[in-house]
Amino acid sequence: MEHRLLGTSGIEVSVMALGCWPFAGGSTWGDQDDDVSIATVHAALDAGITFFDTAEGYGEGHSERVLGEGLKGRRDKAVIATKVSGGNLSPARISDACEQSLRNLQTDVIDLYQIHWPNHEVPVEESWRALEDLKTQGKVRALGVCNFAVQDMGDLLDNGHCETDQLPYNLFWRPIEHEIQPLCVENNVGLICYSSLAQGLLTGRYPTADDVPDGLARSRLFSTDRPLAKHGEAGCEEEVFEAIGRVREIAADLGQPMAAVAFSWVRQQPGVTSLLVGSRSPEELALNLSSLEVHLNDDVLTALSDSTEDVKTRLGTNADMWVSPSRMR
């Protein structure tokens, strides 16, 4: 398993991380057996995955609690990342939120504590000072953010150093390449990538746009006419499914599954520290691990990027997958 550094923190993490949101179950993920989730944590550790990402907002702390159970007796083998919600970013609430996450995770220190979404009603410098206090107290080892675009990241960097920015990034979702990714690379801010398979589109499982379930077709890749869409944009369904065909051909020429090729493309992009895999079972995890054996040469990387250039152009600089105007500044 390849390991990379979290920004300038000196903390090493596996290039593939286990995204633990599915452990929350509920309306987003459906029924999820806690014992299966815990078995998935064990399987990840056994496979060499050391990085685990969760949040206080995933099932009102349930994901954190399940992860804490899964790491019992093996906490020293894991790097835990969790997140403080936007509603808890006032200095008075950050400390309490951190203490609750520590209890949920059954640990005395959080390795990477992240702001989940920006809260533009609370000055970022106030939140950041409170987070740095937690680091000084030894409750947190490193600080990061999620869903910060170029203006919010710039404001933050004016007030301190951020180790990581967690953002959606995949062959179909490339808005960060315009401004955010270069800013992060320039400032040694590592990219943690979620939705690396474009919510299943890059597995090739959906023959046409009409086959994509409503819950997944609410992103800006799809028409605003979709039942759950809230973005008000035309989408780019035709471009996406033409690109799926091109990616499928490239993967077939390599003799590799589409998903493995898509994961590898993200892993090899500039500034990427780790990519999240939201596996719900040891079996799902095993399917994703095979992608780590795939390394793409420069010609293939370029061909893949070219195959989705039309989609990148249509989406523009808005890195918010679901909303327009963007919640990310």
Describe this structure in words.
By secondary structure, the protein is of the alpha/beta class. It is built from twelve helices and ten strands. The strands form two sheets. Strands 3-4-5-6-7-8-9-10 form an eight-stranded parallel barrel, surrounded by five helices. Strand 4 (51-53), helix 3 (62-70) and strand 5 form a beta-alpha-beta unit. The longest helix is centred in the C-terminal third of the chain and has 18 residues, at 237-254. The radius of gyration is 19 Å and the shape is globular. The model has no long low-confidence stretch (mean pLDDT 95).
Task: Give the tags.
329 residues, alpha/beta, TIM Barrel, globular
State the fourth-level CATH superfamily.
NADP-dependent oxidoreductase domain
CATH topology: TIM Barrel
End-to-end C-alpha gap: 35 Å
**What is the overall silhouette?**
globular
Spatial arrangement of strands, main beta sheet: 3-4-5-6-7-8-9-10
Radius of gyration: 19 Å
Per CATH, the class reads Alpha Beta
- Write down the secondary-structure element order: EEEHHEHEHEHEHEHEHHEHHH
Task: Extract low-pLDDT stretches.
Answer: none
Tally of discrete structural domains = 1
- How much beta, percentage-wise? 5-15%
Mean pLDDT across residues: 95
